[in-house]
Design goal:
With about 190 residues, this protein is mainly alpha-helical. Helix content is about 65%, strand content about 0%. It folds into two domains: about 80 residues, Orthogonal Bundle (Rna Polymerase Sigma Factor, Chain: A), CATH 1.10.1740.10; about 70 residues, Winged helix-like DNA-binding domain superfamily/Winged helix DNA-binding domain (Arc Repressor Mutant, subunit A, Orthogonal Bundle).
Amino acid sequence: MNESYWWPLFLQGDKHAFSEIYLAYHDDLYRYGIKLSRNPETVNDCIQNLFLKLWKNRKNLKPVREIKPYLFRSLRNHIVDILELEKKTLPINHEAEELYGIEFNAEDFMISSQIEKDMQEKIISLLNLLPPRQRHVIYLRYFEEMEFENISQVMNMNVQSVRNSISRGLQVMRNSGVILSCFIIIG
């Protein structure tokens, strides 16, 4: 998608540009949202609300360099707000990573069909044992293929913290004897 083309047109009120952005990112947003809330209705509602707010507030929005991290962060914030409302017993300033946790499953590895079943199960188990923040950044890096800078935007972390979280998570997996050919090891 040519982000530098569609976003400015959308900001000017172009409905076709808005539709192109929606169509280009809806599936990615849904897949990410399901990882956060695990409730399809909540995810669909949050995506609809996100795009409704974008359209209503387009005159106040600023240009963005990359649309995907902007939309991911916005969706994440919407879902966190919903989860906080549903779990009123948690303090409002509770970190989002503790409200939910990304969990991996076999569907995440459909693309990598060469992974044997037992290795796949071991990888899934190890990923799910990582702390929530590490799981989240690994998901964004390797399953959504985001750059470190974009992950830092989505997660509201500095870039070095993102790198450190990924590195620590991968180190745990290396220490367990699992070789992850599907991940690029960060040096």
